[in-house]
Design a protein that fits this description.
single chain; mainly beta; Jelly Rolls; five-stranded antiparallel β-sheet
């Protein structure tokens, strides 16, 4: 499984904090043109995702709360779990053919910021749901 995890440089002061989630240099030529950014929330104990993409790459960053990101490589069944959020501020790059789901493990709503390598197209969603 060829995921990548980028440790975020959190800059804090009396006003709050700022971090660069994804920069142009984080994208490769293989990632293609600009896709889309979306935000998703999950209530405590809820899981989102439970799918994989055949050609799309996604980058996940939990910007509020905490979650466990589960990744399973569809080719060799390799499994990885990563804690992401307030306790581990990272951006995780999820390549095609890696099943992924994120569970809110905190006591408050979790906010997930995601970038996907191509915009959603309902006529060609490239999203394959599976319960694993």
């Amino acid at each position: 499984m060829k995921i990548s995890i980028k440790k975020l440089d959190i800059k804090k002061d009396h006003r709050g904090w700022v971090a660069e989630i994804l920069r142009q240099e984080d994208l490769s030529k293989k990632d293609g043109k600009f896709g889309q950014i979306h935000i998703s929330t999950a209530k405590p104990g809820q899981t989102k995702g439970k799918h994989y993409h055949g050609r799309k790459t996604e980058w996940f960053c939990v910007i509020a709360g905490n979650g466990i990101l589960t990744l399973i490589d569809k080719k060799n069944e390799e499994k990885k779990q990563i804690t992401i959020g307030k306790s581990n501020m990272v951006t995780v790059k999820i390549p095609p053919n890696v099943w992924h789901a994120i569970e809110n493990t905190g006591k408050s709503e979790m906010y997930l910021l995601a970038y996907i390598s191509e915009p959603f197209n309902p006529e060609d969603p490239d999203t394959y749901y599976e319960e694993l």
